[in-house]
Records
---
Amino acid sequence: MLVNTYSCVLLFLAASTVFVLASFVTSWVLRPHKPSPQKLSTYECGEPTKGTSFIQYNVRYYLFALAFVIFDVEAVFLLPWAVVCKDFGLFGFIEAVVFIFILLAGLVYAWKKKVLEWL
Amino acid sequence: MMFKISPENWAFLIEFAWLCAKAAGLLGFVSLSVMFLIWWERKVSAHIQSRLGPMRVGWHGCLQTIADTIKLLLKENIVAKDTDKVSFWLAPLVSFVAAFLPFAAIPFAKNLVVQDFGLGLLYIFAVSSLGVIGVFMAGWGSGNKYSLLGAMRASAQIISYEIPLVLSVLSIVMLTGSLNMTKIVEAQGQVWFAFSQPIAFLIYFISALAETNRAPFDISEAESELVAGFHTEYSGMKFSMFFLAEYTNMFVVSAIAATLFLGGWQGPFLPGIFWFLAKVYFLIFLMMWIRWTFPRFRVDQLMNFAWKFLVPLAFLNILATALFLVLKK
């Protein structure tokens, strides 16, 4: 027996990495290599590029990322409840409703505060 | 001195070799399936637009993808001077690995699964959501404004649609009481969950389209405004890895949909693997049909749709399912 049921994940990780690297190596053996300054310039519709692309970004990306973290963690909390929900009865149902409504209140709050506006 | 292999070690080695063979077989299957899907997508799009599509290489162009693969293998590798070398090289690798890892837990037929994890569904969602890191590394590493813009949009979109995706699946977990893929399929012996949970199925399918960056949710690589988004600077084999990852992702989300909502391998007369693949390829065909029929969403419409419509709807669906289970008891 293997050490753990999840050790095959490691093996899949290794196998797919080897697959990608093997295709890179095959292509490296076969392909030509003739770089020139024009080829190595960054593509911008034929114009020379102005400035760097490492610039400041609009804050809304971070707000959405924060909202994502909140709701993803919540989904993780809901998963164990969902598995046993069948035999939990009325008590478990009410607990889950309270939990979900607290989170929905958070969603409504973010909505009203215009965090979810993309403009 | 000779190294003796004990019977326990032999058993370990045999199991290890068997797992390696399974992984290699799946890699071969994925490559062939992607080659077929690329050709198929080109034919489907062509016929939807009253064209013929590829016709020259092989019967109705069926060997076109093989010719394209050989061409991509022989293409020069261009690494522009502004790129961040490490993330530029690692991005295609991360994308493909994240797309391939879920195959470890997908049941192709009864007992035809590499490892029947008890938490299979959670595992699949955990590893397949790593793909966004590859997309972002590509956009960031390219040192190109279009790529960075595309990658930022793609990340915002993928993480937003992750929420309704996971929430829609929760109601299936509630009905089955298990995260094991095989048990979920067996729970659909009478009725498919697509019929008992139609809202969850629709939410899942729409979110899956967005997760795989397919039209109408393909703003991350909108050709007309961003050139090609996060893979503008990629060429040759590194570019084809992104292509491979995209089509593998399509297969994975369709396979999850077939398993969770369409009864997996179950079907009359024919062997299970046939039914499973038929359902998966039908869903992929549906995704292509949608891509070549509907125009692209605007970015604010896209985010509003996820947060203000799909997320509340998915919560309501969970509450309704929970209420149903309580009342039934």
---
Amino acid sequence: MNQDDKDYTVFLEGDQRGFEALVVRYKDSLIYFIQRFGPGFSDAEDLAQDVFVEILLHQERYRIGQGFKTYLYTIAHHKSVDWVRKHHREVLVEDCQEETDSITVEQHTLAKEQREELRKALRQLKPEEQRLIFLAELEELSYREIARVMSLTLPQVKIRLYRVRRRLKEILIREGLTI
Amino acid sequence: MKSKEEFIAGIYQKAEEARREEAQTGYAAFCNNKRRFSVALAAAGVIVVCGLLSFRSRIIQPEREPDSHGIELAQHEPQALSEDLTGGQESGQAGAVGDADSEISSGPRGRAVSFEEASIQARLLRTEAAENGTLFYYEALAVDKTMPVQAEEEPGQDGLAALPEEGTEFSLFLTEEEAAWFYPTGIVPGSIQLLLVCRGEGELVLSSVEEKEETEE
């Protein structure tokens, strides 16, 4: 049993500390993911709270072993799509870039300079492409898990990721970036 | 930006509000659901009646013209397309055709796609210099539409690319949208990669159809 499931079990047993541990673990990356749909930082923060509220109110919906991360991002995806529908827009992610600077989800894998270079390159991708890269490279979800989160078929995930990676590579080469 | 504590407190507060709201609107929701159920039942009735009428009109008029998107193509002209591809095979450029058929038939969704459905023939219309190569615009004869194919070669001196040489290979990955556009008769999209070969005089024929495995990079 991984740490997420251990915490969730504690939460199911009635101890809120399990839930809070999950909130603290995923809060920042969840806000970062939601921002890829277009909302500004405070909206994204609100939506992230709504995701956790959903988990809190319907704790029996998640089954241990299913993959908490996948479950969490699936809810976030649905909430964000609702947000986009409500606001009829999917704004450019660079619009809210200043605020996202405080979030460093890439921290664990890349040095500061490299992160900045990667961020520059990511800004040139479409929001949906950014979400795919985020789930695949930073959250390290499997293709199957990404398909579940983004309501896509497995072949669609494979082909889109292949294209996004190719495009990202082209951007990195064109900009002379060295990641 | 909220602190960790504020963020968690906000979650509990929202959850509490949601619970309260749910309790208050429980009866209203019940009534609402009853009304919705009635509306849904009426709508279902209308759909069933429309379906029956449509079914009846189909039986009365079974002979319909093929639509303008060439949907009937695979049923009417599979033989002709097969012959085109057999020609390619004889000149040594479409060797993988037979294999492709068997691969696709056992596609990822278990849907049988015949080779006739996947056959293509196209004619070069024009070329355009693109940022990182050349775009060759082909008119797909089967569906009478143009399809840009990116080739990895540098444009010629005058900015326009030279015609692709015989035997030049192109590969084309199909998205769901492209698959629907190019094969209105239906093909399993997403995982399909088409390998196209230029057969001379700007004519493009299908060399093979492959299922893509895990990511290539």
---
Amino acid sequence: MDRFSVFSSRLVDKSENFTSGHRACQGCAEALAVRHVMKALGRDTIVAMSTGCMEIISSPLPLTAWKVPWIHNAFENSAAVISGCEAGMKAMMRKGIIPQKKINFVAMGGDGATADIGMGPLSGALERGHDMVYICYDNEAYMNTGIQRSSSTPFGASTTTSPAGKDSMGQHTQKKNMPQIAVAHDIPYVATACPSFPFDLIEKVKKAAEMPGAAYVHILSVCPTGWRIQPQDAIKYGRLAIDSCVFPLYEVVNGEYRLTYTPYRKLPVTEYLKGQGRFRHLTDKEIQLIQDKVDRDYQKILKRCEEGR
Amino acid sequence: MAKPMEQIKWQELEVGSVVVEVGNALEYETGTWRSEKPVVNKTQCIKCGVCWLFCPDACIVKAPEGHFEANLTYCKGCGICAKECPVGCITMTGEEE
């Protein structure tokens, strides 16, 4: 596989398979993540997409921002649909109806479609071991319908269905650790990525597509609207999430963990939380709880990386 | 130009509402959303392409002279390019009537 040995924007594919003219909010890092993913995958790709932000902004009926075959799905069944596509195309190749070719089968969904509603079909598709990639764009709530909490919403975040106020401190449950659930399926490749680190993201998606068998990539995509930040800070907050170890970047190849990015200096979580409107109400006690949880989780990941060596 | 949805009759739709034209979202000009536009200082630009890599709308194009410029037909004016530029050669200036 061609790996980026030099990080230069000139080495990135120039073609745009996810065109301009899509209707994402200003500074949408999710649209940026899709753009990077499509640069990594290229033209020979079939995409099945669950309902969510990315689905409604890229394909309002007479228009489409995609230059690849793309199928609209309900919230729950993108993994099931892409399984069928993969099985069907494989059968047609075997019978000689279409020429033999490497095609990337990609299912995409938001965090609601992945961690809440589409969890069963996704688990089934991973278990059956189809040659597919599942990509989850995690913006940590149902942003499309108006910022309702999902099981991927982090502890303490204020959303419209977990509002902060006198008697409530926002979301009171912990974020569901979706990459670990994917690892538990014993699939060949699981990775976490963020569009603030584009070379890392492109490399991981390429690797996921080249691995035979099912692969899962979890992408943290900052949502300026739902996180209550300025649009121009979208990239900055992605970087802060990784530097404060709230969202560590790692990959799991055949069960072996590898940390792909180690922060130069581990920042306290306050750096990441402050400035975000959804965490504005947190007191020092709650921030300490978040810091403890982040440290514990990061130590767990580090320990697993050590064991893999 | 694809017609807006309310002007399309049901007879004109493909079976299953399939869109047969690829990438025709280019016909929708998101530049009208903008209140600020990025202006590049050409002499300061080091042509690194970071703005091109981080633009969520894929609207930054390479000019013939080598520096990068926003295509104002699609630029939504989010300001990510100005924020991420390593030499700070992009400034956001207000749109005028």
